[in-house]
Amino acid sequence: MDAATITLILKIIIGVVGIFGNTVVCVVIAKVPAMRTLTNAFIFNQAVIDFLGSLFMILQNNLQIPPAVSSNSAVAFLQCFVWRSAIILWIFFVASTLNLVVLTTERYVAIVYPFKYLTYFDRKRATAMLVTVWVLAFVYKSNNVFLYEIQDRTCIFANLSRAASVAIGTITFLIEYLIPLIYMTFCYVHIILQLKSASSTVHPEPSTSQQGQNSMSGSLLRARRNTLKTLFIVFVTYTICWTPNQIAFFMFNFGLPLNFQGAFYYISVILVQLNTCVNPIIYALKYKQFQNGLRVLLKPCFPNLARRHDQESVPTISPRVQPTASHAQPNVEQEPEESP
């Protein structure tokens, strides 16, 4: 088999795994009450985006338009500017990046600025953010229609000037890759420093009451770290999957040669599309709340699977940092909640 055939097979496998894995994530979050937190709402949106991306990846690679587009202008528009340009698939890819940025922001505010969390992340604002992710992705990638043109009923890539090519390459590289990467890196570094500072206040005490408080603080930090580690792995995976393709596209738009039939290009494309199916695997391996939710969901079908968890529930904890002597403790009932 040649490289193109192998790539097509891998894309189909990735698409099937992505459809299955992201469906499981959506079902667990939707069906298990303890999973219905704001953090998981963003994870749910990520899974929906990646599910649709996986589905359209299979369709895009197996449903080809005929060499000559339709004589009907409306049908020709759909064939060339929508399907051939892969605008729908790229809308999902960009939405996935934007949603990851919002998810990182939610964790950043919850951990670094816990007392301001409800100001920015109540249900109404969270819903508005989720809708904004979709709207921005759709509006931004609509420019793909200008990259193609129809000549003699044939859909071809537009012959762009050097200046236009450089401009498009630079904007794409900055918006779809570099700016989100720098922003999320800053957030995670700041979060890690904040958690290290908070962990220094959690230590064993001889007093029973102090031991109880430190035990609760330790559980809070462990749960918070588990969520953070999971999302950090998601971020690192995103970086690995997107870096080769974005750098290749950026260099190509500046006139450097790129072999579209070469191994590097095929691998870079596979990595981008791999990002649509890898997150559910990360949740299954690292996200303890998702693991518990999956056990709850499967328990009626497999009673022995979660027998040792019969007396356990998925606890709900505040995302705030344990207050020190220099901070007044807010009313716990008014604080945002995060499940570990």
TrEMBL record:
Q: Which PANTHER family match?
A: TRACE AMINE-ASSOCIATED RECEPTOR 13C-LIKE (PTHR45698:SF1), TRACE AMINE-ASSOCIATED RECEPTOR 19N-RELATED (PTHR45698)
What keywords are assigned to this protein?
G-protein coupled receptor, Membrane, Receptor, Transducer, Transmembrane, Transmembrane helix
Biased composition, class Polar residues, residue ranges? 313-332
Question: What does the UniProt entry say about where the protein is found?
Answer: Membrane
Ranges where the record places region Disordered: 310-340
Q: Name it.
A: G-protein coupled receptors family 1 profile domain-containing protein
Membrane as UniProt keyword: yes
Provenance organism: Patiria miniata (Bat star)
What is a single molecular function from GO for this protein? G protein-coupled receptor activity
InterPro entries, per the entry: GPCR_Rhodpsn (IPR000276), GPCR_Rhodpsn_7TM (IPR017452)
* GO CC term, one of those recorded: membrane
Bilayer-crossing regions: 6-30, 42-61, 81-105, 126-143, 163-189, 231-252, 264-285
Coiled coil spans: none
Q: Where is the G-protein coupled receptors family 1 profile domain?
A: 21-283
Query: Is the Transmembrane helix keyword given for this protein?
Result: yes
The family annotation for this protein states: Belongs to the G-protein coupled receptor 1 family.
Lineage here is: Eukaryota, Metazoa, Echinodermata, Eleutherozoa, Asterozoa
Q: Which domain of life is it from?
A: Eukaryota
